[in-house]
Amino acid sequence: MWQHISRDISAATGEAFFPGVIRAVGGGCINSAYLIKDGARRFFVKANRAAGLALFEAEAEGLREIALTGEIRVPIPVCTGVAVDSSFLVLEFLDFSAGGKGLAEELGRQLAGMHRVTASRHGWRRDNAIGSTPQINAQADNWPEFWRDRRLGYQFALAAQKGYKGTLQRQGERLLVRIDAFFPGYAPPPSLLHGDLWSGNYGFTHAGEPVIFDPAVYYGDRETDLAMTELFGGFPPDFYAAYREVFPLDAGYGIRKTLYNLYHILNHLNLFGGGYLMQAEEMISKLLSETM
Ligand code: ADP
After folding, report:
1. How far is ligand 1, taken at its centre, from the CA of residue 27, in Å?
2. Tell me: the pLDDT tens digits for 181-201?
3. Residue 214: CB within 6 Å of ligand 1?
4. How far apart are CA 99 and CA 105, in angstroms?
5. Which of 1, 62, 117, 152 has the smallest set of CB atoms within 10 Å of its CB?
6. Ligand 1 atom showing the smallest separation from residue 92 Cα
């Protein structure tokens, strides 16, 4: 496998690459990850089963979409492929640091800059994945409909297939028919989104640049990215202050963020089961009480 990957790296970079060191690195949720290096160059390699190639291709395309904006740093994709029975994605290797003064603010400003990049419709030209769950990006003009059908509706249907019926589905249906109630006078433009922006998917390089990685890119309401930053642990307070200073948020964000994070909790329910059922049901009850 490594011979094949090294050959592809050589071809993609136009420079022969003969790795002397291949080391597994931890930290990822879904894939195996490796540092691979020769005397001069280092690369970060993610690997999965062969059938995962399309997801790596979508991840690479998402990283390029963000990189093209020039607003915020992402690891640049080098190549993707299948070697022996594994799919792989090779990225430039980044040295992460513990961060430093002013970097969380810079991250907030740069994310706001990325969110100012818009498309004509919500969605994206291709589907991708959120964790290992398919994420449907078929484009639409109406954002609440997009969120209802391609995001919440999709996860509710998946949950039903997995046997989560009863209250979750009944309350879910009540919520989805009222979706418009969460968007009074609010029609967000389709912003370029990271799509999976929890605290495990950003960092700072030793050179002092904020970096975001492992995205699930599409175009949609920027509030969805911010909501997710608050879901698991939260980002530093300076991040939020700086973001809001350059790109203020609509007053309805406080209520919508639960509607947006419900997507990720349903996805966690579908991926990991158990305790997320209660959390999803509580979120739905809260949302329903807010539309009464
Ligand atoms: P997964 O898709 O399995 O969740 P991630 O893309 O989140 O994997 O990467 C796992 C970990 O590897 C991250 O938490 C981060 O610490 C590190 N990492 C990610 N991208 C790079 C990179 N380009 N260079 C060096 N380390 C990286």
Report:
1. 7
2. 999 999 999 999 999 999 999
3. yes
4. 11
5. 1
6. 23
